[in-house]
């Protein structure tokens, strides 16, 4: 899933902004593109057992740990259970990325199941990503002003990075406002409804992005999911206000939600190099501006689960199911020669990537 914070592109354009040397255009490496397509043709079928088992298992663990965190009398147990809950619910939530890419006929009922299990309870229904994330993968949009999920963060001022990360802690409050207040009010005013849909119904970071008003079957699905999330948000507020849900339990849940959002924002920060200034890029250039953090590192499996540790490979083969990305990476790494651009998108750790991006923002005129 991409992030929740929008920063102005103007942060990169003032007189004291970073010096940016013109970069040569990166041409497509046709050998890499052809090899990637040919070697992975047998990996495109989603495995139902993987999807359903992974989602349900993550949700059960996450919600179960949340209950333990709320009911525990020991601070240590509360903290440990909360950590488990964050990691498990984060994994369950990130299936929104798969939902936005999959052919729903290949996994009947999975989108509905995901919304019922994770999307609606966590106030991130699938429409927050569907119809938005696919624009990030459009060859003519990636890295441009029309990309909802891109800003030249590496070229902005140094203060933008900590703000970008820390503001995500407010995401649960923002989602409650969106669904408990704005959504029901928007049903009373068509003008407000259009504004809420265009401005406050997508997980995007580009402040200039406005999503199109859905029509036909997409509008029906949007309205149903929006209404369901709104009912849940209002019920949650009412249960807390009447004392049915203790304030302590609510605050622990809110804290877990904030930690999930923070973890996702950090992952988003290191998913790309963020070095494009708005020009159209070739597929190879888009790949090289994206990041793989493959094994033997173990931690990326926690902070970039559901295949997102192979984010660059995902941009190369966006329709590949998450459980196939590891095998695809092994095949391509073995076949493509050392000089291939494919190997240049692999990095060792999130800390190294954060240091690179942070250092880039420190270069001044």
TrEMBL record:
Domain Fatty acid desaturase stretches: 76-344
Keywords assigned by UniProt, alphabetized: Membrane, Transmembrane, Transmembrane helix
Transmembrane domains' residue ranges: 49-71, 77-97, 109-129, 159-181, 227-245
InterPro entries: FA_desaturase_dom (IPR005804), Fatty_acid_desaturase (IPR012171)
Domain of life: Bacteria
Pfam families in the cross-refs: FA_desaturase
Protein name: Fatty acid desaturase
Phylogenetic classification of the source organism: Bacteria, Pseudomonadati, Pseudomonadota, Alphaproteobacteria, Sphingomonadales
